[in-house]
TrEMBL record, chain A:
<dbReference type="InterPro" id="IPR039910">
    <property type="entry name" value="D15-like"/>
</dbReference>
<keyword id="KW-1134">Transmembrane beta strand</keyword>
<dbReference type="GO" id="GO:0005741">
    <property type="term" value="C:mitochondrial outer membrane"/>
</dbReference>
<protein>
    <recommendedName>
        <fullName>Bacterial surface antigen (D15) domain-containing protein</fullName>
    </recommendedName>
</protein>
<keyword id="KW-0472">Membrane</keyword>
<keyword id="KW-0496">Mitochondrion</keyword>
<dbReference type="InterPro" id="IPR000184">
    <property type="entry name" value="Bac_surfAg_D15"/>
</dbReference>
<keyword id="KW-0812">Transmembrane</keyword>
<dbReference type="GO" id="GO:0033108">
    <property type="term" value="P:mitochondrial respiratory chain complex assembly"/>
</dbReference>
UniProtKB/TrEMBL annotation, chain B:
<feature type="domain" description="Thioredoxin-like fold">
    <location>
        <begin position="41"/>
        <end position="136"/>
    </location>
</feature>
<feature type="domain" description="Metaxin glutathione S-transferase">
    <location>
        <begin position="189"/>
        <end position="250"/>
    </location>
</feature>
<dbReference type="InterPro" id="IPR036282">
    <property type="entry name" value="Glutathione-S-Trfase_C_sf"/>
</dbReference>
<dbReference type="InterPro" id="IPR033468">
    <property type="entry name" value="Metaxin_GST"/>
</dbReference>
<dbReference type="Pfam" id="PF17171">
    <property type="entry name" value="GST_C_6"/>
</dbReference>
<protein>
    <recommendedName>
        <fullName>Metaxin-2</fullName>
    </recommendedName>
</protein>
<dbReference type="GO" id="GO:0007005">
    <property type="term" value="P:mitochondrion organization"/>
</dbReference>
<dbReference type="InterPro" id="IPR040079">
    <property type="entry name" value="Glutathione_S-Trfase"/>
</dbReference>
<dbReference type="GO" id="GO:0001401">
    <property type="term" value="C:SAM complex"/>
</dbReference>
Amino acid sequence: MGTVQAKEKQTMVRVPVEQAPVLDFKKDVRVDRVNVTGLKRTKDDFIKPIVRELFHATNFGDVLVKADKVHRRLENLECFKNIEIFVDTSKGPKASPDGIEVTFDVTEMNWLLGSVNAMAGSEEAALVVGGRAPNILGRGEKVQLEYTHSNTHNTNMALSVSKPLVNMKSNAKIKSSIYQSNASFGASGFNEQDRAANIAFEFNSAPNVHHTVLWEAVWRYLDSTTRTVPMSVREQNGHSMKSSLIHSITMDRRNKPVFPSSGTLIDITTEFAGLGGDVGFVKNEIKMQANVSLFKDFVLQGTLQKGLLSEYSDNKTSHICDRFFLGGATSVRGFEFRGLGPHEDNISLGSELYWAAGLHLYAPLPFKVFERNFGDFFRTHLFVNAGNLGKFDSGMDYRDFFKQMVASARMSCGAGLAVRIGNSARFEINYCVPVSVQQGDRPIKGCQLGVGISFL
Amino acid sequence: MPSVLLGNVAANEMAQEEEWANDTKLYMPYDVEQILLADNANCVAVQTFLRMCNLPYRVEYRKNAEFMSPSGRVPFIQCGKYLIPELDHIVTFVNNKGKSLTGHLNDKQKSDMRADLSLINNVLVNAELYLTWVEPVTLKEVTIPRYSSVYPWPLGTVLSYSKRSEVIARLKALQWYDKSIEEVYNEVDKVCSNLSTRLEKNQYFFGKPTELDALVFGHLHTIYTTKLPYTALWDTVKSYHNLIAHTDRINSLYFSKKG
């Protein structure tokens, strides 16, 4: 597992040299003491529940495994910029015969941190300016303020407060934020302004299984981008209030987030809107990805996504900003952004049901012209993408319903180059050939560029 | 908003040759539970104008009509693919279709009519806005309950107050905000007296029905039919008997028989 390996490299376990020859991982030991040095404003009672786990270690190998686990938990608190571990035999009058002493030497983050980042999405580039105060009261409380401005004049301002709950072993965290965002969706003919407040509880139910339970209230304002926007979009203008409960599970068992060579990712989100407010719907979405390593460095990747939005009441409805959209460099390639599915006057209306699938064959750059490290940033890929978006009559026979969803499906294929940016994002340049297109779609035949974190 | 007006000019030029669409729709807020004095007056005026021109239309009630309108004001009509907000733009649009209620007027009468139209739009509308959004009892008992009726808590209250500050900014800029309620009624009285003098004993202001008749009817009929905590506004208006007779005449001619 790549992520773990990466962290183990950082975990510097320094065993005194004279001890080295007798290193025996099965050797029974007793952890006499755990020291945490370098704590200044961090409170002891905040750290104690985390390091306590080490006292349960019974042999030397166990100590190392647990020390690594504690290291990761300390790191997750986002209070320390550096953590080092020292393991030594315990000395002094109270030392037991097999006694061991573990020391974590931490460096706290500054009171106040500022950052300026560039960010790129599928349709825009943005500048993020932010400030945060980690560990403000000494128990991991973090206050963060962020302002994002993009080249398309979309803005987002967010203030968030979070606190890790160290007494729960599952990396639990409570987080609350308020934000205001302005975004323009020219392809769909509307501008959206959101003002929202939310509170979230995050935890892991198993390693790599992350849950978020979120309640959010959003005051939305929609506005038409031009005078010629069709009435079906224009009639949704104005103010609405959505209050919803969202649960999402992410099971990430891939070996790395960008260009994985093995493992699966499953992401399930359920949203129930209508606890107060005038917007009501149930929205389910699932995204799956599987990676299989073929010969040499060739990797076959399959992805499948599906979403369904249903209304349950006549009084509370959904709006265009709640619907699903397909198409674009990070979605079904070979179509413009939101360029697949129902359109009116060239304005993408989105819909309530979609599926999308992709099959990719990734290969390293040919001829091994670049050194291994540099080449790691690049992959070539061949792909086939398919998907469908619409309102399908689900009242009929299950097989008929399935036939409808497949019959009008869109498909594209192509080849291109993907570049890794940092540890989570990637850039793609593809030559796309739309194979199956329906009336109203806006396909792209030729080059398509895309930057993003989550790709189909 | 200059862009909107410019858009209108372009739309009007293009629309010249096309016929009036039979499925023309007029969008307005719910008149029973939501609409407020000034908006209602404009909606009635536009409907009256269209009926005077004998142009077919269908009313579409939408709680967000204000935000659907290209100018942010109600009512607006959708004729074919064109959206036209407010009475003066609609009059221009209809004129471009070759229909006009002012063909029989000479230049002086036309400029008199324009002066009266702007008098109503400047004085009567501001007086109505003042009464709706500034006068505290009306604000609390009528305006806020009606304006927020179509929104869930707490959005209704928030939007009511943001709308109020928007209107107050307008009234401040036009130096209406600092007036006392008596001064406001006096202004209304002056307008009514002007109109009453212009109407004299005639059936209509300029012989035949024009948009001025539609606008005067829109306001007076609305003032008459709207229930407010105070009747002072209606009391001011009703002393002008020829205006009241004019209102009754248009009401029975254009609204009673069709229902």
